[in-house]
Design a protein that fits this description.
- By secondary structure, the protein is an alpha/beta fold.
- Helices cover 43% and strands 18% of the residues.
- It is built from eleven helices and eleven strands.
- Strand 1, helix 2 and strand 2 form a beta-alpha-beta unit.
- Helix 2 crosses helix 9.
- The longest helix has 21 residues.
- The termini are far apart.
Length: 319
């Protein structure tokens, strides 16, 4: 191809891509969710899809592709056409812990177009109420007096429930034994029964048990207190700048036309001002996270580096 032909081709593309974006969408759009139905990421995808469908004038269909921490779903999206018809409501796991602890077939920093973060939540340090502690400082003192003698459960080695707890223990200088489970539900169940003493779970999975007095909530790993848990202090109140949160955001395959990216980001920004939408997030213990595509991309890079350093320093290895 000569120089003139290349110039002509680029000129045609420069004209065609904006036109294609203006015509989008002409058919249903699908949102891939990297987990089975249920849970925060799935709920966020469904309430977002409902609103986007109305705004775009086309059905927005949620498709669940669970398994392997969401890696297969991420790989599927990464290899899909960047035409705006395949979107991804993903969680931090697919961009931090999963590609850092197991072999994946996608690049979390190169294979996606970040569009907008939607909601985030910290993890609540929850303990069995049989422990003779009533607050975070008391728990820290109790554990320090018993190095290596107490256990904490997680949804599996390298999971966010593991890493968030590990980050807290590291910052507080605590020595507890990690007990990994196949998912958060059995880890929580054993915390409720007293088989393990601590679990770092999401607000949505702990609220009901806390209200019934079956578990005690001591601190949350987000930078600020959660609106659903106003009496639970942020760990940052004791350890400044401490933060360990998971986000749920909207992405697409790399190369999504800027006009489509801008359109979708704008629609999500409108949701950040929609009372009923925000109320539904709040009931799940989620905090809205208004972002631009650029700031969302920067956040992904920052958190990828943070979890990489923690995983390396703690020598976290997934069997």
């Amino acid at each position: 191809m000569n120089r003139f032909s290349r110039f002509f081709l680029f000129a045609l593309l420069a004209i065609a891509l904006p036109v294609m974006a203006q015509d989008w969408p002409k058919r249903p759009v699908r949102i891939i969710v990297p987990y089975a139905p249920g849970g925060n990421t799935d709920a966020i995808a469904r309430i977002t899809a409902e609103r986007l469908g109305t705004a775009l004038g086309q059905p927005v269909i949620v498709e669940n592709r669970g398994g392997a921490g969401g890696a297969p779903a991420a790989d599927f999206v990464a290899k899909s056409p960047a035409d705006g018809y395949t979107l991804f409501v993903a969680a931090l796991s697919q961009f931090g812990p999963v590609p850092l602890t197991q072999k994946v077939n996608y690049d979390p920093l190169k294979d996606f177009t970040p569009i907008a973060n939607i909601a985030a939540n910290g993890f609540v340090i929850a303990v069995n109420p049989g422990l003779p502690v009533t607050d975070l400082k008391g728990f820290i003192d109790y554990v320090k007096a018993r190095p290596g003698k107490l256990n904490y459960g997680s949804g599996g080695t390298g999971s966010l429930t593991h890493l968030a707890a590990l980050l807290f223990l590291s910052r507080a200088g605590l020595d507890m034994t990690h007990v990994p489970y196949r998912g958060g539900a059995p880890a929580l169940a054993d915390t409720l029964s007293g088989q393990v003493q601590m679990y770092a779970g999401s607000p949505s999975e702990l609220l009901q048990h806390a209200a019934a007095g079956k578990i005690r909530l001591l601190g949350i790993t987000s930078e600020r207190r959660n609106a659903q848990l106003p009496d639970v202090p942020a760990i940052a109140e004791l350890y400044p700048a401490f933060s360990a949160v998971t986000w749920n955001g909207l992405l697409a395959p790399a190369g999504l036309p800027p006009a489509i990216t801008s359109r979708l980001a704008g629609e999500v920004q409108k949701l950040m001002k929609d009372g009923p939408f925000l109320e539904r997030l709040s009931k799940l213990g989620l905090e809205p996270v208004p972002t631009s595509p650029a700031s969302f991309a920067a956040e992904i890079r920052k958190e990828h580096a943070m979890w990489r350093d923690l995983i390396k320093s703690a020598n976290v290895v997934v069997d």
